[in-house]
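Side project, low priority. Logging it here so it doesn't get lost.
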Amino acid sequence: MDKPSHIVKSYEEQLKLLEDTIIKMGTKAEDQLLMSIDAFAKKDLELSKKIIAEDEVIDAYENSIEHQVVNLIALRQPMGIDLRETVTALKISSDLERIGDLSKNIAKKTLLINKNLSEPLTNSFNLLGNKVKKQLKSVIDSYLKRSKNVAINVWESDEQIDILTTQCMEDVIKYLKEDEQNLQNGAQLLFIAKNLERIGDHTTNIAEQIFFLVTGEYLEGNRPKNTDSEML
C-alpha cells in the first residue's frame, strides 16, 4: 500500500490524503470484485487464491482511514463540509471493507465448485456480476467527481441487482433439481449469488453517503427493492 513520503502538516493536506486513501481503497475493492467475477467465470483457481491473499490490502486501507479520521476529529475539530468529508470517509471505508470481504468469499466458493457449469447458468451469473461491477465503478466515480446525480442513479438501480439475483437463484434451484450430485455446487452458487447481491447493497450504502456528503441531506424514501430474492 502506498504511504506518504512526508509528514502531512496542513489541514488541507490531511483532508486530501483522506480523500486519496478512499479512492485507492475503492479502486482496490473494484479490482478485487473484477477478479472474483473473472475467477468464477473462468474457474481460475490461482486467481481465486490471489484474491483471498490480497484482501489484507483492503483491511490496511481501512485501518489507515480510521487512523486519519481519528486524528482529524481530535486535532482539527472539522465543521460543516469538512466534518461531512471526515465522517463519510469512515462510513464508506466500512462498506468498501465489506465489499472486499464478499469478493474474497466469492473466490473461496469458486474454489469449491468441482465441475463446469452450463452456459445458461454461467450467463445468469455473468449478468449479475457485470451489473454489480458497473454499480461499484459508478459509485467510486461519483465520490471522485462529487456527483449527486450518479449517486442517485446507483441508489435507484439497486432493484435491478435484486431482480438479477432472483433470476440466478431460480436458475440454481433448477440446476439442483436436475441431479442430486449438483448439491455441493448448487450450495456454493447460492452463496455466490447472495454475496453479489450484498455487494450491491454496500454499493448503494456508499451512494447514500455520497449524496449526504454533497448535499448535506439524506436521500428520502425507501430504497427501491425487489423482495423476491429474500423469499428463496
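Brief comment: The radius of gyration is 19 Å.
Revisit when time allows.
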